[in-house]
Amino acid sequence: MVTILVVEDDAMVRLLTKTKLSQRYRIVEAANGQEALDVLDHEHIDLLIVDIQMPVMNGYELMRALREAGDMTPAIMLTAMNTFAHKKEGFAAGVDDYMTKPIDYEELIWRIEAILRRARIANEKRIVIGAFSMEQDTFSARYRDKTIPLTNKEFQLLYKLLSYPNVVFTKQQLMDEVWGYDSETEYDTIKTYISRLRSKCSECTEFELTSIRGLGYRAVIHKKGDAQDDM
Q1: Which of 14, 127, 213, 217 could form a disulfide with 134 if both were Cys (CB 3.0 to 4.6 A apart)?
Q2: What are phi and psi of 228, to 5 degrees?
Q3: What's the predicted TM-score (pTM) here?
């Protein structure tokens, strides 16, 4: 079971968060950043939920200490401080996501699952969605017992989209990620590559690549091929 460390000085908030999440995850608690560091010294933690304003060591200080030590455990910062400056400081300190109180716990679970899925992909360098799989180390893709022949760019483009299901990427974002910031490739190239990928993956019913007019592209995962269950 996934273990989540809730770092929060308010005992009632910790209790509520534990109550809302404990059916899905194992919850460990800490009342401040220093206690969190002590827990991390003795337990494997899959994800942190961190408050900002705490005694002894606040959330910013905790995150900076972890990242400077090379600890890249995913973290969501929960706080009543919702100004742009506070969010900027949080992301600069190394958090992966940021939510303001009062917390919508259903949304929090969505965010937790998204972060855990990205972490698994990053660690395993592999995406599995039903009978479809991609291996980053070998730049290979398979559906059932068949290899899907992909060029280097096709693989990178599909891997990016499938790593973030339902997230819309603009053409510029995809150009920068796959072709590089200095590329002189035209936007129509993205359209061409998406068309090729749709053709090459036409037998794969676990997902589809959709166009969002005026915005960009996204990968839609069908329920029977839920990537989170198959990872």
Answers
A1: 127
A2: -70, -35
A3: 0.60
